[in-house]
Amino acid sequence: MMGPGWYLRRLSRMGPAEVVGRARHAVVQRQWRTALPTPPDWPSHPRFTAALPAGVLGKASGEAVSRLLATADELMAGRAEYFGVVRTDFEAPDWFLDPKTGRRAPSDVYAFDVPYRSEDTVGDIKQIWEPSRHQHLTVLAAAFALTGSPDYAARVAAHLRSWWAANPPLRGPHWVSGIELGIRLLSWVWTRRLLDGWPGVSELFEDNPEFQLQLWHHQNWLSTLRSHGSSANNHVIAEDAGLLAAACAFGWFRESARWRAEATRSLDVQLARNTFASGLNAELASEYHGLVLELGLAAAVEADAAGTPVQPSTWDVLLRMTDALASIVDNRLRPPRQGDADDGFGLIVDGAATDRWASLLATGEVLFGRLDWWPAVPGDDVRTPLLASLASRTPRASGVRPARRPAHLRDAGMTILRSGRVWARCDGGPHGFLSIAAHAHADALSVEVRHDGVDVLADPGTFCYHGEPQWRSYFRSTLGHNTLELAGRDQSVSGGPFLWTRHAVTKVLDVRTPEKGPSQWRAAHDGYAPAVHRRTVELDGEVLKIIDEVLGETGQAARLAFHLGPAVTVLLDGNVAHLRWPAPPAAGQGKSLAGTRTESLAGRGTDFSSAPGADPLGGRAADSSSASEADPLVGHVSGSLADSGRAVRTAVLELPPELSWTAHRGETDPPLGWYSAGFGRKEPSTTLVGTGAAGHLTTLLRFS
């Protein structure tokens, strides 16, 4: 639980209007404790008219359908995975159980009394909330729609009835957070749509008093307690999207027209506020760009299908977001790994192996049309034809689109340098969004470098939010990114797991990104004022140069960190690091490399010997038989190159000789040398740390 100090810091980041608004919410919550609001009478013969057009299911590719059915069959067998934890109880899940800690959240407590931030009391709340977004039910419903098998539909019905019975309005943890209610409503809309044609669908939805009660209370909650002020980030988008979709598809209450109008107006305003003019999400967290875009598209097509379209300005923002995504992905369609990421999706009607980013770009291509500079996008997902079929009457957005691929998104401070297979992201933007910058990391001037989609200089990721403060602090710290730390402290000051009380201010000084030839980026930040950290990054062919300068107060103790991707094996020889990793599959022969793995030797090392002048990692994969159990970095080799049967890529990282360099892998006290491929998951990777006096430091990365 948060202490008094946190509440004071949080209050200091609110304006007067937000304080008043939160006081009003507190009054409503107090009233609901003793007297639940009463829903109106349900219409006598409600009809669901938002069905899919005939024949649209046949437009999904065979590969996409196969992936979907594979995931659906795992669910039918009772297996599901959330944030790295595999559950085998999904035939009849306990909606309050956290399988990670074994704890069970209180189910019969007034929602706003549930201490959901306390892992000791409720367990990991993300593990509890995620299944109750009911996105596994949209997958099962889609499997029914594609196959006609009633078993999928029966499982959906069993889960919904179980959840409704266990979660009466405003009782337990599933009524605490608006984002959960909004995404759940969106899932219910699509579940009903995809079950159309099943004999029991009307009894489950339109003719079911339990559903009527749940539906009204979800929408009334969202209309009454909408996020605002310093919390009006991706949460308010999810709240508006869910309210709008439900009020369109299930528009049977006397409040439905008002809810539609409210949600339409708010979605238009909040999407604009949450998005830079360049199209990037203002939270500067790449995964949340995907979440907000998914939510916005799902809500907009729902309104169009109901004949109550959203504003053209809403579509313009979604267009800009789609073009921005196309502009920043690497050649494997992977976006940056900037800021927080919690694997949140807005709408899932695809198998787990479907590439999320390719799917979003495929949807954008159908809705808005592709530009000449867009990367090639495989159209092999289920969601795209379904969404597009509902948007047939949508007027195309009229915003001006970039004539060439943007390299520098000035307002977001993101610059992408490209040369052949080399992709580099340079971070020179604002610290985060709104006064609390909830999902920001202390990563000013950090770089992220990939070669043919493989993380070489990696952003380590996020790993966790609640319950493990040491790990939360590490993954969003300055030392946890490819940038310079001074005096052993972060550039920005944290006031809690989703609160920053001081934000470093960054300014991009120069950007040169010609279509041919060398490119350059230079920026500085004041996070260590009066000292200033200035960084220059130059990319010329397959050579990347990084120059770090500390101005104003030189000589301070500094640590310069470079985090290597989990696929990279490292031989550190003084200030020279020899890097080696398996080549990725040829395009079209494998998925994107977000999860590329090698067998890591956590806590062990390998002593490679080589003749003078030979490749220091030449010809041999890591052999644990030569490792010393006492020394995790014998011979300064970190990681192992598993026999992948693929070619091997190499690079040389020439580190500043002014610093003393050490390699770290899988350390826990304190954490150092970790990579999180997704929320709740982490694995050892190698971090190179140079320690010494701040000054003028030059790093060279040469790809072979």
Q: Number of DSSP strands? A: 26
Neighbour order of strands in the largest sheet = 11-12-13-14-26-19-17-16-18
Shape label:
globular
**Rg measurement, Å:** 26 Å
- How many domain units? 2
Give the helix proportion (percent range). 25-40%
CATH class type of the largest domain: Mainly Alpha
Give the percentage of residues in beta strands.
15-25%
Largest sheet: 9 strands, antiparallel
CATH topology of the largest domain: Glycosyltransferase
Relevant CATH superfamily of the largest domain: Chondroitin AC/alginate lyase
Organism: Amycolatopsis australiensis
Biased composition (Low complexity): 621-631
Pfam family, one: Hepar_II_III_C
Main location: periplasm
Walk me through this protein's architecture:
It is built from 17 helices and 26 strands. Mean pLDDT is 90; it is low at 590-635. Strands 11-12-13-14-26-19-17-16-18 form a nine-stranded antiparallel beta sheet, with no helix packed on it. Strands 3-4-5-6-7 form a five-stranded antiparallel beta sheet, with no helix packed on it. The chain has a four-stranded antiparallel beta sheet with strand order 8-15-25-20, with no helix packed on it. The protein is globular and about 80 Å long. 31% of the residues lie in helices and 19% in strands. It has two domains: 12-41 and 57-390, Alpha/alpha barrel (Glycosyltransferase); 420-586 and 636-703, Beta-galactosidase, Chain A, domain 5, CATH 2.70.98. It is an alpha+beta fold and 704 residues long.
Keywords:
single chain, alpha+beta, Glycosyltransferase, Beta-galactosidase, Chain A, domain 5, 31% helix, 19% strand, globular
